[in-house]
């Protein structure tokens, strides 16, 4: 279903009041919040053919959530009926479709619509969104809900990839028509998707080699089905919300303590924590993996929260299979028939899985110059490259009036994605509602407010920077960006962040009305 908009005869009147870019978890949250606020004149532009974002685009073997389902849902759409403690991808995808349908978002959706460029029109005081098909959409307000993982790294930088004669699979574009049963498979990468793919396919293939650059922390996953009796119990009003609240309170406490402690006292605690954790995990690996050499090579030399930890019982157990091997020699190149490592060994393969990650929201390189251009030619990509990623309450930047980003600098609060995109959506919708109430055609965060906020956040992130950019500087991680900053994580508790986004002073913005 698509939504058609007719052009207005008045060039100063936008096609739509609010445009939401992206129909993943953030876009759905924004759409529901807009409707609940009575702001019905909006569209949601989505490049794919269905809602769900990553949960629609990804459908590789073994795909599932890595936190319990009770903590992976919207506060306005509690789901007591997850079939498993850690639901599989198809069920999560269906959940997002059900929420979008339940709250009447489909009439507002325009699928197969990719926004290539956002340009602020100073004269008309509206945004012009340039689409991939050459057309444009104009909107008074824009909510960017493109998510955390912006686009897959299609080119992982491995020489010779184009010469490979076999099948290349990507987690974001898995070809289920290719039968990998009985094939020789190489998996490049040890991140979250690799940890799910390896145990899902290892029993079906002839042999499987996992090419590891950096060992990953992998906690056991108590993934069991949820009995019908438990589902009925969870359906008791308020029970799922209570369980979710307990989880959020725990996350809140950890973040508050971790960011509030003085750096001089936090440093020795962090060092001791990492040493103890690594030693304990080494013992755990030797219990899980029979071959001691493999277990030792699977042992990280970095702390457990320096790189995104994973959760899987099957991943580690897969290395006990005779047809699964761990390769830690660096890759020299891909050949016609497989992968050659720097020790000169050729690893033949029929299929290569590129589990090499995404461009993420916390890296300045993700934002191409010229793609988001605001007032007086302000270029977001150039600004963040030169001055570092920053945004008031993670959502708005001076120079970009009437625009909010749901997953912006210093935004992740350690919670499930739904909890934090809800609070940033609350900020955007509250701001739009106030602008509409005042009859304002523009609102823009004040420069001095933004700068004071960023200075405060940057100061509070000192312990995180020490942990990620000094103590664990040797490990590649998207928790630390290319500028050595920790713009992925918000250095505050979850509840403080939620309160700030729901109750920010309107005076933090400058409102104006076109004469």
TrEMBL record:
Organism domain of life: Bacteria
InterPro entries listed in its UniProt record: FAD-bind_Monooxygenase_sf, FAD/NAD-bd_sf
PANTHER family from the UniProt entry: FAD_NAD(P)-BINDING DOMAIN-CONTAINING PROTEIN-RELATED, L-ORNITHINE N(5)-MONOOXYGENASE-RELATED
Record protein name field: NAD(P)/FAD-dependent oxidoreductase
The organism of origin for this protein: Nocardia acididurans
């Amino acid at each position: 279903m698509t939504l058609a908009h007719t052009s207005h005869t008045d060039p100063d009147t936008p096609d739509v009041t609010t445009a939401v870019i992206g129909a993943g978890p953030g876009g759905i949250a924004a759409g529901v919040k807009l409707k609940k606020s009575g702001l019905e004149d909006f569209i949601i532009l989505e490049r794919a053919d269905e809602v769900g974002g990553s949960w629609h685009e990804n459908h590789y073997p073994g795909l599932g959530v890595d936190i319990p389902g009770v903590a992976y849902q919207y506060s306005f759409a509690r789901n007591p009926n997850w079939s498993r403690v850690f639901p599989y991808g198809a069920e999560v995808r269906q959940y997002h479709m059900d929420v979008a349908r339940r709250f009447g978002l489909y009439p507002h959706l325009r699928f197969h619509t990719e926004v290539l460029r956002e340009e602020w029109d100073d004269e008309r005081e509206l945004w012009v969104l340039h689409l991939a098909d050459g057309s444009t959409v104009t909107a008074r307000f824009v909510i960017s809900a493109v998510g955390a993982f912006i686009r897959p790294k299609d080119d992982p930088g491995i020489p010779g990839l184009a010469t490979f004669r076999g099948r290349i699979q990507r987690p974001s574009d898995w070809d289920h028509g290719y039968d990998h049963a009985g094939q020789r498979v190489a998996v490049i990468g040890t991140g979250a998707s690799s940890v799910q793919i390896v145990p899902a396919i290892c029993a079906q293939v002839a042999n499987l080699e996992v090419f590891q650059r950096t060992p990953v922390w992998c906690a056991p996953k108590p993934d069991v089905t949820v009995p019908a009796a438990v589902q009925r119990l969870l359906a008791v009003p308020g029970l799922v919300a209570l369980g979710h609240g307990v989880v959020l309170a725990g996350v809140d406490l950890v973040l508050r303590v971790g960011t509030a402690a003085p750096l001089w006292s936090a440093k020795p605690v962090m060092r001791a924590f990492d040493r103890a954790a690594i030693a304990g995990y080494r013992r755990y690996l030797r219990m899980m993996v029979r071959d001691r050499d493999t277990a030792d090579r699977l042992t990280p030399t970095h702390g457990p929260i320096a790189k995104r930890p994973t959760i899987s019982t099957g991943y580690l157990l897969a290395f006990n299979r005779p047809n699964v091997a761990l390769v830690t020699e660096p890759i020299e190149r891909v050949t016609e028939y497989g992968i050659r490592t720097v020790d000169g060994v050729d690893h033949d393969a029929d299929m290569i899985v590129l589990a090499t990650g995404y461009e993420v929201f916390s890296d300045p390189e993700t934002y191409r110059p010229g793609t988001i251009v605001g007032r007086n030619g302000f270029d977001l990509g150039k600004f963040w490259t030169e001055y570092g990623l920053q945004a008031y309450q993670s959502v708005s930047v001076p120079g970009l009036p009437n625009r909010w980003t749901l997953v912006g600098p210093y935004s992740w609060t350690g919670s499930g994605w739904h909890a934090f995109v809800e609070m940033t959506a609350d900020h955007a919708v509250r701001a739009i509602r106030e602008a509409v109430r005042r009859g304002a055609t523009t609102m823009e965060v004040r420069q001095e407010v933004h700068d004071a906020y960023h200075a405060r956040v940057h100061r509070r992130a000192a312990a995180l920077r020490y942990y990620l950019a000094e103590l664990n500087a040797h490990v590649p991680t998207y928790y630390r960006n290319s500028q050595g900053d920790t713009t992925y994580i918000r250095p505050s508790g979850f509840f403080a962040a939620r309160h700030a986004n729901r109750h920010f002073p309107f005076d933090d913005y400058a409102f104006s009305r076109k004469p």
